[in-house]
Amino acid sequence: METELIVNRVAKSGLVSLDLEDYYHPGERVVYDLKDNLFMGLILKEKDFREFLKTHDWSQYAGKNVAVTCSEDAIVPTWAYMLLTIHLEPHAHTVVFGSLQDLEEKLYFDAIARINIEEYRDARVVVKGCSKVPVPTAAYVEITRRLRPVAQSLMFGEPCSTVPLYKRPKQG
């Protein structure tokens, strides 16, 4: 009886897999909505706001990722967001202005910025497409922007089923 040798063609292909899921920050995500600090839901009173900032328990944001926004259609001065950030920043892991989506993008951009892109120089890179955590499209755009100048080729998907995206032209 002859046994057939099973060859792992994916392993022999020289493809390097990059999974953005590996760069997901596990910390809690919360929204701080300035609408709760508005007088009659319309205006921000500086004196009242400054008093709130002094007395609020900021430790509840320890290690959290905070998106700062105002969901009311009110004119909120820029300095109010700045003051809020001054109080959040010593406690929170990250503070951004915007939505939870903006926060997620910032967390991924920070993680992608820490990747040693040189590790992918001249590599055939597959950016994995399926993940158990939500990966924003902006993160895929950012990793593509960072990898294209160094990678030999870029693909999307799984090593066994990829969508070709880029192949460096041959030097002639």
TrEMBL record:
InterPro entries linked to this entry: DUF2480
Matching Pfam families: DUF2480 (PF10652)
Name by which UniProt lists this protein: DUF2480 family protein
